[in-house]
Amino acid sequence: MNAGKDQSHPLYHTDRQVVDQLLTSEPSDHALAEWARLQIRYQHFPGARDIQRDLTATLARWGLSQEEVFQRTRAIHRQGKVYRSRAVSQEDWN
Q1: 15 - beta bridge partners?
Q2: Other Cβ atoms closer than 10 A to 34
């Protein structure tokens, strides 16, 4: 594999839609959890630069740091209510 070449993520199109929603959302529990999930997925991914850029822009708009979001989402997940309305097969942490 060529280390300098950007890759395409297989979930890019689905994730792009979520990021577009995050860009205009308020930091609700669901939005925070989605942001954290996508940040973990893309933070070291060699590609999808637009998603990485827009995740950073979302944080700035919310006025939160990455660590603040991760702290809040850990608390949200301890309650176990974020994805309750979604089918288990739809949860995606890859």
Answers
A1: none
A2: 21
Q: What are phi and psi of 89, to 5 degrees?
A: -65, -15
- pTM listed for this prediction: 0.82
Q: What is the DSSP string of 33-65?
A: HHHHHHHHHHTT-SB-HHHHHHHHHHHHHHT--
The secondary structure of residue 4, as a DSSP letter, is T
Which amino acid, residue 80? Answer: G
d(CA 61, CA 34) in angstroms, rounded, equals 16
Q: In whole angstroms, give the CA distance from residue 47 to residue 77.
A: 28
DSSP state of 80: T
Rounded Cα distance, 36 and 29, in Å = 11
Higher-scoring residue by pLDDT: 94, 21: 21
Do residues 34 and 22 touch, judged by C-beta distance below 8 A? yes
Question: Can you give the pLDDT at residue 3?
Answer: 58
Picking from 20, 44, 48, the residue whose alpha carbon sits closest to that of residue 34 is 20
